[in-house]
Input
Amino acid sequence: MADCEMTLDGGIATMTMNRPEARNAFSMEMRSEMDRLFHEAELDDAIRCIVLEGSGDHFMAGGDVKNMHEYLESHGPAETQAYFLHRIHDLHTIMYSMRRMPKPIVAKVRGAAAGAGVSVAAACDLVMAEESAFFTLAYCNIGTTPDGSSSFHLPRAIGIKRTLQMTLLGDRYTAQQMADMGLVNFVVPNADLDGECDKLAARLAHGPTHVYGMGKKLMYRSLENEFESQLQMEAECFADCAKRNDYREGVAAFVEKRKPNFTGT
Output
């Protein structure tokens, strides 16, 4: 069984991080498989929404600290620096894929989202968490700084002061606290997580997929663009969507007072 697997049902790709015995902590195989699967999902027109989850009782507990310890026991500072530089760049290719993904990505969080688990959740477009889920950046507790794009996404999602609080103190936060701060979109009872996430994913999978991709691109680029550049991009994205089938269908459905039947094209 692979450390990361993907299944497709009704336009919804469910990507499962599959190391429950280690709270789904990253292994080298998991990184490689996630990278490959995100590339496949990007190019597969049958996929219209992605749900990212962890197997077992937890979302993801970050890096495999036991593996890190074993490496440190047998390597010196220079080798260690080179090793982790390469390892983290490998992780960041996944974040590039997630940001570029022209389809919505929903994080389905149960249990722990720790270290890189917070980073991965923050890189998703929407986050749904069960009430008992908890989040902790925790890098300072093992004597290092955050990775996995959390230093980019968290300040933009929850603000610099709260991000520094998470970074410097390494405390644990409930799902509701993270919703109040702006990282989590939906908090649901534990027993309802699967059903509510299925509803959200189905809604997205039946929506105007190309429009979602353009909307993601537009909003994420707004974090970096100047005013004039952003307005130009708004015009280009609207015009691009206007030539497509889903715009014609959406306008016709509005005029005819019926529910649109979007095909993602």
